[in-house]
C-alpha cells in the first residue's frame, strides 16, 4: 500500500497586501535624526550625511553615525496600539524595510538592524535581527514581514553601525519603513488530506476568521480542471481556533489534488495551497482492519503491511497523543487507556492510514 500524503502548514490564504502607510517618522534622515523621531543610545553622535559618496538611496540625506568607534545605535519606538484588536486576534501583519550600505574601505564598516515587537510593559515578544553585514557596491534591502504577536503595543526599530576602520562609522541606513498590512481574512494554520478506510478525509484548522462565509472543497487530477465536492460553513468573524472536516466519499484511483476556496460574505474568494493524496491501492485500505472493536485490553491489526509504516500513533477524541510506538506488531496493548473513542494512525514516509476504535 503506497499513499502519498502531503501535509502543509499555511500562514494565510492570500499574500499580504499593503495599506501603504509608513509609520516611521523621519524615515530618510531628511531632518536631524537625533531630534526628529529618533533616539540615540547614550553618548553617541548619530547625524545625517548628504548624498555624495555614496549617493543616498532616497532624498538628499542618509543616516550616518558620525566620528565614533565601536558599535553605535539609533532607535525609534512606534505606537501600534491603534491596531490592538487585530493584533490581539493575531491577524495583523507588519512589513519592515531598511536600505543599508557601507563606505568602500578596508576593512569595511558594517550595518545591522533589529526590529522588536514589544508589549505595553516593554517585554520583547518577537524580534527580527538582520545580523551585521556590509555592501559597498549598492544599497541592499533588508526586509521582514510578520504577524505581530498578541499584546504587541510598540514596535522598536534599532539601527546599528559598527566602525572597523577609519575615523567615522560609515555604515549607512536609508528609506526606512514600517507598514501595517491588510488583516488576514482567514488564518489557516493546518490543512491535510489522508486516506481513511476507502475514503479521503480532509481536515483543516483556522486560528482566526474575518467575515468567513465558508469553504468550497475542490479536487483535480490534472491541476487545470477543478471539481467542486462540497461546501463547509465558516464561523463568520472569530478570534478562536476552529477545526473543520470534509470527507471525499468517492475518491479517485491515482493521484488527486485538493484545495479550499474560502469565500467571505461579500462574495470575495481566496484559495488555499494544494495538498495531494496518491490513492492507488484501494483494496489495501479495505483490507486493513482492527479487531475487536470495541476492545478492552488488546487490539489486533489484520492485514498490516509492517514495511509500509514507520510508527504507530494513537490519539484521543481531542487529538491528544496517548500512545506512540516504532515497534509495529499485529497486536497492541490498550488496557491502560481510559474508556472512550480513539484514532489509531499508522505513519510511513509516503503512507498514512487512520482507523477508529472504541476502548471499553
Features:
360 residues; mainly beta; Jelly Rolls; Immunoglobulin-like; 3 domains; seven-stranded antiparallel sheet; five-stranded antiparallel sheet; disordered N terminus
Per CATH, what is the topology of the largest domain? Answer: Jelly Rolls
CATH class of the largest domain: Mainly Beta
Oligomer: single chain
The percent range for helix content is under 10%
Mean of residue pLDDT values = 84
Shape designation = elongated
Task: Return the structural class.
Answer: mainly beta
Please tell me how large the radius of gyration is.
28 Å
**Can you tell me the CATH superfamily of the largest domain?**
Galactose-binding domain-like
Number of beta-strand segments: 24
Q: Termini separation (Å)?
A: 30 Å
Treating each run of at least 4 consecutive H or I residues as one helix, how many helices?
A: 2
In N-to-C order, the SSE pattern is EEEEHEEEEEEEEEEEEEHEEEEEEE
Instruction: Please tell me the total number of domains.
Output: 3
- Biggest sheet: strands, sense, closure? 7 strands, antiparallel
Compact description:
By secondary structure, the chain is mainly beta.
What does this entry look like structurally?
This protein is mainly beta. It has 3 domains: 148 residues, Galactose-binding domain-like (Jelly Rolls, Sandwich), CATH 2.60.120; 94 residues, Immunoglobulin-like (Sandwich), CATH 2.60.40; 72 residues, Immunoglobulin-like. The protein contains 2 helices and 24 strands. The strands form 6 sheets. Strands 11, 12, 13, 14, 15, 16 and 17 form a 7-stranded antiparallel β-sheet that branches. Strands 1-4-9-6-7 form a 5-stranded antiparallel β-sheet, with no helix packed on it. Strand 11 and strand 12 form a beta hairpin. The longest helix is centred in the last third of the chain and has 6 residues. It is elongated.
Amino acid at each position: 500500500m503506497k499513499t502519498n500524503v502531503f501535509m502543509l502548514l499555511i500562514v494565510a490564504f492570500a499574500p499580504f497586501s499593503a495599506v501603504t502607510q509608513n509609520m516611521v517618522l523621519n524615515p530618510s534622515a531628511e531632518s536631524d535624526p537625533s531630534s526628529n523621531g529618533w533616539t540615540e543610545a547614550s553618548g553617541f553622535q548619530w547625524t545625517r550625511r548628504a548624498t555624495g559618496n555614496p549617493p543616498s538611496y532616497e532624498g538628499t540625506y542618509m543616516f550616518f553615525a558620525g566620528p565614533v568607534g565601536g558599535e553605535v545605535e539609533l532607535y525609534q519606538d512606534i505606537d501600534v496600539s491603534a491596531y490592538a484588536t487585530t493584533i490581539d486576534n493575531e491577524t495583523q501583519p507588519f512589513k519592515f524595510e531598511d536600505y543599508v550600505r557601507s563606505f568602500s574601505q578596508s576593512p569595511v564598516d558594517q550595518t545591522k538592524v533589529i526590529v522588536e515587537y514589544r508589549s505595553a510593559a516593554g517585554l520583547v515578544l518577537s524580534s527580527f535581527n538582520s545580523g551585521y553585514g556590509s555592501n559597498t557596491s549598492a544599497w541592499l534591502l533588508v526586509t521582514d514581514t510578520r504577524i505581530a504577536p498578541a499584546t504587541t503595543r510598540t514596535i522598536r526599530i534599532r539601527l546599528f553601525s559598527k566602525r572597523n576602520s577609519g575615523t567615522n562609522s560609515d555604515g549607512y541606513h536609508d528609506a526606512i519603513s514600517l507598514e501595517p498590512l491588510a488583516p488576514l481574512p482567514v488564518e489557516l494554520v493546518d490543512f491535510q488530506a489522508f486516506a481513511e478506510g476507502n475514503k479521503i478525509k480532509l481536515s483543516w484548522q483556522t486560528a482566526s476568521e474575518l467575515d468567513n462565509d465558508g469553504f468550497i472543497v475542490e479536487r483535480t487530477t490534472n491541476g487545470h480542471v477543478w471539481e467542486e465536492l462540497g461546501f463547509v460553513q465558516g464561523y463568520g468573524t472569530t478570534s478562536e481556533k476552529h477545526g473543520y472536516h470534509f470527507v471525499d466519499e468517492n475518491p479517485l484511483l491515482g493521484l488527486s489534488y485538493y484545495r479550499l476556496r474560502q469565500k467571505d460574505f461579500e462574495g470575495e474568494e481566496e484559495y488555499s495551497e494544494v495538498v495531494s493524496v496518491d490513492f492507488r491501492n484501494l483494496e489495501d485500505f479495505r483490507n486493513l482492519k482492527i479487531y475487536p472493536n470495541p476492545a478492552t485490553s488488546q487490539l489486533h491489526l489484520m492485514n498490516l503491511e509492517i514495511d509500509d509504516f514507520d510508527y504507530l500513533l494513537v490519539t484521543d477524541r481531542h487529538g491528544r497523543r496517548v500512545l506512540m510506538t516504532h515497534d509495529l506488531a499485529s497486536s497492541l496493548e490498550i488496557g491502560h487507556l481510559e474508556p472512550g473513542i480513539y484514532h489509531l494512525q499508522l505513519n510511513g514516509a509516503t503512507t498514512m492510514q487512520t482507523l477508529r476504535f472504541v476502548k471499553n
